[in-house]
Each structure stands twice: as structure tokens, then as C-alpha cells.
């Protein structure tokens, strides 16, 4: 198994697609969260759904509790895929991880076509949060408060025992992240947020504009932290509109 196979799930491979979409999930999420996105965008866009360590088919691996460590491992793994234009979409934890991956790609000479950052304050505006320090019941309660499509599975004690280390590891990574000074991104940034998201204000989402030298756009949708589950066609429409404007890789 290659590093690409370890980190990336291509549910609907689209080898002839002009662009790729790297999808990064929220804390406690997995690659399967993007199965529907992959189905909807294929064969126009080759969706690369990222599987973090410590869950599903990577259950035996230790979780990575640092966004910087996750970004290092993922960026190295996807290096063979950068011969085609790559767009990054991340939600919550995945938004910050996507930003760090974009930074590393640009440092290597590969400019993503764009970063779509959803449900997360700008990197320099992350909050002081301690959810990862709660006991299992407290951590689970916090996760359920945010909603999402996967929390119903956590009622099963056997499932919960398997996934709790990954959930705690992800929350640790998200809540202990520290932004490191450096150049702004060369690629455009499109920030998405829900108007009632308790994890990010509209002002905190708008602050993403401070991290790019290129185009910035903020889209505010009705809903909470998982607003995106209710506006999938709108989000996919924005992604399609962007990727259709991309005709060739951009490199330094």
C-alpha cells in the first residue's frame, strides 16, 4: 500500500477529470463523510476524500493530535497527485488542516486552485477551547450538541469505544492548534459558515481574508455548525463554478 492509498479514498475515481478536490472532514469525521460529494461531482471532478489515522480502516494506527503533524503526513502522501490542479475543501478541523496543507504545497511550488474553508475561524483567530480535556461523556455531549450525520452511531457502546480515541485526538488537534507566521496563500480562499454556528462567528469567518493575496469570498448560509448538510447543492455549485474556471495547473 502506498502513502496515497493510506490517506486518500477515491470512491468514484475520475482519472480523466481536469481537476481534483481534496476533502478534509471535521473532528471525529472520516473519508466516508464525502461519499455523496464524490458521487455528485464525478466524473467532472476527481474527489480525494482524506482518511485521518485512527478510524475505520486506519483504526489500528495511533491518532495524530497535532494539525501540523497531520498536514506534514498528508502533504507528503499527496505529492504524487499534484500533476493535476487540486482544490482543497475542509470543514471545521478540516478547514485549518486544509490551510496548512495549502501552505506546504505552495512552499513546494504547487499552488492549489483554491482553499474552501468551512465552519472554522481564520487560523489566527482560533478560540481557547478545552473540550478535549473533558471526560468521555462530556466530549460526547459536546459533539452531539453540534449535530452532524454521524452522531447517531455513538449510541452503540461498541462503536463508541472504537471511535472515542479518534474523536479525542481530533479535538485535541483542533483546540491546541497554534498558527505559525508565514507568507499569505497565493491561492484564492472561499470561506463558508452557518449564521448560527456556535463555533465561529461571521466576523471570525470573514477574517480568512487576511490569509490570502488572491481573491476572497465569504458565503453565509442558514444553519449551525453542520449547516452544510442542508445546502449541499449550493456548496457543490460554488465548487463546480470555481473548478470549471481552472484550465491548467499553476506553479511557482
From TrEMBL:
Record protein name field: Thioesterase II family protein
Keywords (A to Z) from UniProt: Hydrolase
Family: Belongs to the thioesterase family.
Keyword Hydrolase: yes
Thioesterase TesA-like domain span: 22-243
Keyword GTP-binding: no
InterPro entries the UniProt entry points to: AB_hydrolase_fold, TEII, TesA-like, Thioesterase
Species for this entry: Actinophytocola glycyrrhizae
Pfam family, one: Thioesterase
Amino acid at each position: 500500500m502506498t502513502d496515497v492509498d493510506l490517506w486518500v479514498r477515491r470512491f468514484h475515481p475520475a482519472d480523466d477529470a481536469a481537476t481534483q478536490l481534496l476533502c478534509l472532514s471535521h473532528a471525529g469525521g472520516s473519508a466516508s463523510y464525502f461519499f455523496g460529494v464524490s458521487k455528485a461531482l464525478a466524473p467532472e471532478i476527481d474527489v480525494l476524500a482524506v482518511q485521518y489515522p485512527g478510524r475505520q480502516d486506519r483504526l489500528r494506527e495511533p491518532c495524530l493530535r497535532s494539525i501540523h503533524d497531520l498536514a506534514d503526513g498528508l502533504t507528503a502522501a499527496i505529492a504524487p497527485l499534484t500533476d493535476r490542479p487540486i482544490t482543497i475543501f475542509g470543514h471545521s478541523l478540516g478547514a485549518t488542516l486544509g490551510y496548512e496543507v495549502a501552505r506546504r504545497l505552495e512552499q513546494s511550488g504547487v499552488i492549489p486552485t483554491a482553499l474552501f474553508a468551512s465552519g472554522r475561524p481564520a487560523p489566527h483567530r482560533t478560540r481557547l477551547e478545552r473540550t478535549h480535556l473533558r471526560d468521555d461523556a462530556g466530549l460526547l455531549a459536546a459533539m452531539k450538541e453540534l449535530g452532524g450525520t454521524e452522531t447517531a452511531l455513538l449510541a452503540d457502546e461498541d462503536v463508541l469505544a472504537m471511535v472515542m480515541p479518534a474523536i479525542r485526538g481530533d479535538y485535541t488537534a483542533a483546540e491546541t492548534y497554534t498558527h505559525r507566521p508565514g507568507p499569505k496563500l497565493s491561492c484564492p480562499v472561499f470561506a463558508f459558515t452557518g449564521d448560527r454556528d456556535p463555533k465561529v462567528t461571521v466576523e471570525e469567518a470573514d477574517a480568512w481574508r487576511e490569509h490570502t493575496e488572491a481573491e476572497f469570498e465569504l458565503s453565509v448560509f442558514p444553519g449551525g455548525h453542520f449547516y452544510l448538510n442542508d445546502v449541499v447543492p449550493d456548496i457543490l455549485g460554488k465548487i463546480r463554478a470555481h473548478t470549471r474556471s481552472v484550465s491548467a495547473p499553476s506553479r511557482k
